[in-house]
Amino acid sequence: MPYGIQLLIQISFSYLSTVAFAIIINVPRKALNLAGWAGAIGWLVYWVLLYDLDVGRMLANLLGAFAIGLCGMIFSRLKKMPVIIFNIPGLVPLVPGATAYQAVRALVLGQVTEASRLTVRVAMVAGAIAVGFMLAQLLAEQTYRRA
Amino acid sequence: MQNDELLKTCLLAGRIMIEGGSEMYRVDDTMRRIAQNGGAKNALVFTTPTGLFIGLEETPMVKLNPVDRRSIDMEKVAQVNQLSREFATQAITLSGLHRALQRLDQHTPFFPFWLQVIAAAVCSTTLMVVFAQTYDWVDMPLAAVVGALGYAVYGKLSSLTRVRFISELIGAFVVGFSAWSGIRLGLGQNLDNVIIGAVMPLVPGVAITNSIRDMLAGHLLSGIARGMEALLSAAAIGVGIAVIFRFF
User: Would you say B212 and B223 are in contact if contact means Cβ atoms under 8 Å apart?
Assistant: First the structure.
């Protein structure tokens, strides 16, 4: 499949899934579109870093979350709404929900080694995402204090 | 008397925010702001995901409010934030704020249920493609139907029982069972992909990340409590699905 089409699919699907998840968690109507963009940008950063530049899963997650954090900061200033309205739905494509499910499935099926490998990965990915957010917050605080 | 209503309003605002799934530092911050804008300069605030305390430094008065329900509902967080801003600019009075919060507590505006189910379908099917990274077009319709079904069952059960893990367990079981039957009927190919997509509206990925954020921000109690809740949800969903793999 040509790279352009892949890129288009990745962007549109991550946007759609973020907006859909935002509806599930009852994000106010006027924030839906921007929340979707936060998700699409974050996923794009992750996707390009992981599959094209091959920087490794943790760094890709960290920088993806960093991008979402920055988008959240900018959008929340624009719309005068709390940051998490954009951050939480934006995270959905990155969040290790699928891995968490696979870990529990392995555990229930008695594959203990596989289960612990996946559990550690969930914890590390969640940690990387949290650190990415922290860095975005730090940057935003510094920028706005000086301005 | 004035202080009494002020503290009550602060607690109500805090409780609504926690029920909406706000970060702890924002709950702290909002309660302290409302107290300050209402004239109590040194309010002491202590927040946990299961209960809130607020007191005034010079008086023996301390109030507490338990929090029984916790979910994710961004509308609540946004509205409390908005009301707190209005109170800060003195656009509304204290009793106006209190009434508005009570109204919000009882009637939060919600998207209609059918729209949420459609959203769950869209979310499942697009996330399946995004996660699987194989452009698995054949399985998209099945993932959408299974995801919508699982979410609809989960949503209906949530209004019947207060124990969230039961509705999650049964929702996940419905996802697993309908995905398995769909594959058996030849409507899809890859059982794993369909299930991973279809459980996404249910899984607590966001809760896991939030709990780690709370802990990194220094809210240890809240991080552990929310992490535990997320872990139990993940276990309930995993067990609901695993039944399928075990017996079929």
Answer: yes
Same domain, B177 and B199: yes
B101 with B208, same domain? no
Q: Are B197 and B122 in contact (CB under 8 A)?
A: no
Question: Is this prediction's ipTM beyond 0.85?
Answer: no
How does pLDDT run across B191-220, given as a tens digit for each residue? 778 888 888 888 776 777 778 888 887 888
Q: Is B242 close to A26, i.e. CB distance below 8 A?
A: no
Q: Rounded CA gap, A91 and A67, in Å?
A: 10
Query: What are the pLDDT digits (tens) for B119-152?
Result: 888 888 888 888 777 777 777 888 888 888 888 8
Q: How far, in Å, CA of A27 to CA of B111, rounded?
A: 9
**Pick from A24, A104, A130: which is nearest to B116 by CB?**
A24
Mean pLDDT over each residue of chain A, to the nearest integer: 84
Q: Which residues pair with B63 in a beta bridge?
A: B54
Domain that holds residue B169: 113-247
Task: Indicate if B90 and B122 belong to the same structural domain.
Answer: no
Cβ <8 Å between B127 and A82: no
Please give the model's pTM, rounded to 2 decimal places: 0.84
Backbone angles phi, psi at B48, to 5 degrees: -135, 165
CA distance B209 to chain A (A): 5
Residues B148 and B180 in one domain: yes
Q: Are residues B124 and B78 in the same domain?
A: no
Total tally of structural domains belonging to chain B? 2
Q: Is B203 close to A98, i.e. CB distance below 8 A?
A: yes
Question: CB within 8 A of B15, min separation 6: which ones?
Answer: B52, B65, B67, B105
What is the three-class DSSP state of B55?
strand
CB B172 within 8 A of CB B240: yes
User: Tens digit of pLDDT for each residue in A85-102?
Assistant: 888 888 888 877 778 778
pLDDT averaged over every residue in chain B: 83
What lies within 8 Å, CB to CB, of B169 at 6+ separation is B236, B237, B239, B240
| Domain shared by B184 and B151, yes or no | yes
